[in-house]
DNA sequence: GCCAACGTTGGC
DNA sequence: GCCAACGTTGGC
Protein backbone atom coordinates (compact mmCIF):
# COMPACT_ATOMS: atom_id res chain seq x y z
CA UNK A 1 0.00 0.00 0.00
CA UNK A 2 1.39 3.34 -1.03
CA UNK A 3 1.77 6.34 1.21
CA UNK A 4 1.46 10.02 0.33
CA UNK A 5 2.11 13.53 1.52
CA UNK A 6 -0.31 16.44 1.06
CA UNK A 7 0.85 20.00 1.39
CA UNK A 8 -1.36 22.86 2.40
CA UNK A 9 -0.87 26.39 3.55
CA UNK A 10 -2.68 26.61 6.89
CA UNK A 11 -4.02 30.05 5.97
CA UNK A 12 -5.83 28.40 3.04
CA UNK A 13 -6.70 24.99 4.47
CA UNK A 14 -5.39 23.82 7.82
CA UNK A 15 -5.23 20.52 9.67
CA UNK A 16 -7.81 21.83 12.17
CA UNK A 17 -10.24 22.49 9.34
CA UNK A 18 -9.57 19.01 7.98
CA UNK A 19 -10.26 17.46 11.40
CA UNK A 20 -13.48 19.47 11.68
CA UNK A 21 -14.80 17.67 8.57
CA UNK A 22 -14.76 14.40 10.50
CA UNK A 23 -15.26 11.09 8.74
CA UNK A 24 -16.98 12.61 5.73
CA UNK A 25 -13.72 14.37 4.86
CA UNK A 26 -13.27 16.83 2.01
CA UNK A 27 -12.18 16.97 -1.59
CA UNK A 28 -8.55 17.89 -2.20
CA UNK A 29 -8.99 20.31 -5.07
CA UNK A 30 -6.71 22.79 -6.75
CA UNK A 31 -3.92 20.55 -8.00
CA UNK A 32 -2.71 22.02 -11.31
CA UNK A 33 0.51 20.13 -11.77
CA UNK A 34 0.87 17.03 -13.90
CA UNK A 35 3.19 15.16 -11.57
CA UNK A 36 0.87 15.81 -8.66
CA UNK A 37 -2.03 14.71 -10.85
CA UNK A 38 -0.31 11.41 -11.59
CA UNK A 39 0.06 10.88 -7.86
CA UNK A 40 -3.61 11.62 -7.27
CA UNK A 41 -4.59 9.15 -9.97
CA UNK A 42 -2.45 6.43 -8.39
CA UNK A 43 -4.15 6.72 -5.01
CA UNK A 44 -6.38 3.93 -3.78
CA UNK A 45 -9.16 4.17 -1.25
CA UNK A 46 -7.83 3.48 2.24
CA UNK A 47 -4.26 4.61 1.53
CA UNK A 48 -2.83 6.97 4.09
CA UNK A 49 -0.84 10.15 3.80
CA UNK A 50 0.84 12.86 5.82
CA UNK A 51 -0.70 16.30 6.16
CA UNK A 52 1.99 18.98 5.88
CA UNK A 53 1.69 22.65 6.72
CA UNK A 54 3.77 24.77 4.34
CA UNK A 55 4.94 28.34 4.98
CA UNK A 56 3.49 28.54 8.48
CA UNK A 57 4.66 25.81 10.78
CA UNK A 58 6.50 23.88 8.08
CA UNK A 59 5.70 20.59 9.75
CA UNK A 60 3.84 17.34 9.27
CA UNK A 61 0.96 17.52 11.71
CA UNK A 62 -1.18 14.45 11.14
CA UNK A 63 -2.34 11.52 9.07
CA UNK A 64 -5.13 11.48 6.51
CA UNK A 65 -6.73 8.71 4.48
CA UNK A 66 -8.10 8.53 0.94
CA UNK A 67 -11.87 7.97 1.09
CA UNK A 68 -12.72 8.58 -2.58
CA UNK A 69 -10.51 7.89 -5.57
CA UNK A 70 -9.66 10.26 -8.42
CA UNK A 71 -12.54 12.13 -10.04
CA UNK A 72 -12.84 15.43 -11.96
CA UNK A 73 -12.04 18.64 -10.09
CA UNK A 74 -15.06 20.92 -10.52
CA UNK A 75 -12.87 23.95 -9.76
CA UNK A 76 -10.74 23.28 -12.86
CA UNK A 77 -12.20 25.07 -15.88
CA UNK A 78 -9.93 23.26 -18.31
CA UNK A 79 -11.26 19.88 -17.22
CA UNK A 80 -7.79 18.38 -17.24
CA UNK A 81 -7.30 17.93 -13.54
CA UNK A 82 -9.00 15.92 -10.85
CA UNK A 83 -8.92 15.29 -7.14
CA UNK A 84 -9.52 12.76 -4.39
CA UNK A 85 -11.40 12.97 -1.10
CA UNK A 86 -9.48 12.60 2.14
CA UNK A 87 -10.35 12.56 5.83
CA UNK A 88 -8.26 13.17 8.95
CA UNK A 89 -7.30 9.94 10.72
CA UNK A 90 -5.18 11.02 13.65
CA UNK A 91 -2.93 13.88 14.71
CA UNK A 92 0.73 13.48 15.49
CA UNK A 93 1.49 13.63 19.20
CA UNK A 94 3.98 16.27 18.20
CA UNK A 95 4.57 17.87 14.79
CA UNK A 96 7.58 16.73 12.78
CA UNK A 97 9.19 19.87 11.40
CA UNK A 98 10.94 20.31 8.11
CA UNK A 99 14.05 21.14 10.11
CA UNK A 100 13.97 17.74 11.82
CA UNK A 101 13.37 15.98 8.52
CA UNK A 102 16.35 17.74 6.95
CA UNK A 103 18.48 16.84 9.96
CA UNK A 104 17.70 13.12 9.59
CA UNK A 105 20.09 11.45 7.12
CA UNK A 106 17.62 8.66 6.31
CA UNK A 107 15.14 11.28 5.06
CA UNK A 108 17.52 13.18 2.80
CA UNK A 109 15.95 11.70 -0.34
CA UNK A 110 12.43 12.77 0.50
CA UNK A 111 10.73 14.77 -2.22
CA UNK A 112 9.72 17.27 0.43
CA UNK A 113 13.41 18.04 0.91
CA UNK A 114 14.45 17.97 -2.75
CA UNK A 115 11.42 19.34 -4.57
CA UNK A 116 9.54 21.38 -2.05
CA UNK A 117 7.15 22.72 -4.67
CA UNK A 118 5.38 19.46 -5.49
CA UNK A 119 2.08 19.60 -3.63
CA UNK A 120 1.18 15.91 -3.63
CA UNK A 121 4.06 13.50 -3.14
CA UNK A 122 4.67 9.78 -2.66
CA UNK A 123 6.35 8.67 0.58
CA UNK A 124 8.29 5.41 0.86
CA UNK A 125 7.48 2.76 3.46
CA UNK A 126 10.73 3.49 5.29
CA UNK A 127 10.10 7.23 5.37
CA UNK A 128 6.55 6.60 6.54
CA UNK A 129 7.58 4.39 9.45
CA UNK A 130 10.34 6.72 10.57
CA UNK A 131 8.28 9.89 10.46
CA UNK A 132 5.37 8.24 12.29
CA UNK A 133 7.82 7.33 15.04
CA UNK A 134 9.20 10.88 15.11
CA UNK A 135 5.63 12.15 15.42
CA UNK A 136 5.02 9.97 18.46
CA UNK A 137 2.77 7.40 16.77
C1' DG B 1 10.10 21.94 -31.08
C1' DC B 2 13.15 25.22 -28.85
C1' DC B 3 13.82 28.60 -25.48
C1' DA B 4 13.17 33.19 -23.34
C1' DA B 5 9.98 35.44 -20.46
C1' DC B 6 6.93 35.26 -17.02
C1' DG B 7 4.18 33.60 -12.89
C1' DT B 8 3.93 30.84 -8.72
C1' DT B 9 5.49 28.38 -4.80
C1' DG B 10 7.65 28.05 -0.57
C1' DG B 11 11.91 28.19 2.31
C1' DC B 12 14.66 31.47 4.42
C1' DG C 1 10.22 40.59 1.47
C1' DC C 2 13.61 38.20 -1.27
C1' DC C 3 14.90 34.90 -4.41
C1' DA C 4 15.77 30.11 -6.20
C1' DA C 5 13.45 26.43 -8.38
C1' DC C 6 10.14 24.96 -11.19
C1' DG C 7 6.20 24.99 -14.60
C1' DT C 8 3.83 27.18 -18.28
C1' DT C 9 3.25 30.14 -22.12
C1' DG C 10 4.03 31.99 -26.53
C1' DG C 11 6.99 33.77 -30.29
C1' DC C 12 9.87 32.12 -33.70
Automatic annotation (TrEMBL):
Chain segments annotated as transmembrane: none
Give the Pfam families listed for this entry. EVE (PF01878)
Tree of life domain: Bacteria
Domain EVE, chain residue ranges per copy? 2-134
- Cross-referenced InterPro entries, in alphabetical order? 5hmC_binding, EVE_domain, PUA-like_sf, THYN1-like_EVE
> What's the protein called, per UniProt?
EVE domain-containing protein
